[in-house]
Amino acid sequence: MFENQALSGTTAQQYSMLSKQLDALLEGETDAIANLSNASALLNQGMNTINWCGFYLLKNDELLLGPFQGLPACVHIAIGRGVCGTAASELKTQRIADVHAFPGHIACDAASRSELVVPIIVNGALYGVLDIDSPLTDRFTEEDQQGVELFVKTLQKHL
């Protein structure tokens, strides 16, 4: 059984702890859907002021909805479309302060105001993206980006 410890310390220390918890939680499990499910639950529990946290996985040359925490979401996203599709096509993290100012933003949840999307690379190829939304404008900082990228790096070892 896994128990999340109370997170304390600096933002960087909190993300480091989340990544260590993720590594321990996924140790020995080989099923990707189970690992992605637990990863989204852990991140959702560990981050504040977010309203959606989950994965879109590369299937048939598009992103397909995977395990997540939050309201129902868009199922199919074209590579290059919206924040998730842009992260996938550029293989680069997208940290968007105001999603309504992002050209081609896909509004799955009208409450979302900012977004952080990190590509997931497995064996040198795009596997999918981790998408985190917040109802606050400019919610995600550079420290959040670095912390979530560390979380994804940890996750990649278990996929």
Description:
It contains four helices and six strands; from the N terminus they run H-H-E-E-E-H-E-E-E-H. With about 160 residues, it is α+β, with helices and mostly antiparallel strands. It has a single domain (about 10-155), classed as GAF domain (Beta-Lactamase, 2-Layer Sandwich). A six-stranded antiparallel sheet has the order 3-2-1-6-5-4, sandwiched between helices. The longest helix is centred in the first third of the chain and has 16 residues, at about 10-25.
CATH superfamily: GAF domain
Give the N-terminus to C-terminus distance in angstroms.
21 Å
SS class: alpha+beta
Strand content: 25-35%
Order of helices and strands: HHEEEHEEEH
Low-confidence stretches: 1-5
Corresponding CATH architecture: 2-Layer Sandwich
Q: Major β-sheet, in short?
A: 6 strands, antiparallel
Give the total of domains: 1
Write the CATH fold name.
Beta-Lactamase
Helix content: 25-40%
Largest beta sheet: strand ordering? 3-2-1-6-5-4
| Top-tier CATH class | Alpha Beta
Using only CA atoms, what is the Rg? 14 Å
By DSSP (H or I, 4+ residues per run), the number of helices equals 4
Mean pLDDT: 93
The best one-word shape is globular
Tally the beta strands: 6
Protein name: GAF domain-containing protein
Domain GAF: 52-153
GO molecular function, one term: L-methionine-(R)-S-oxide reductase activity
Family: Belongs to the free Met sulfoxide reductase family.
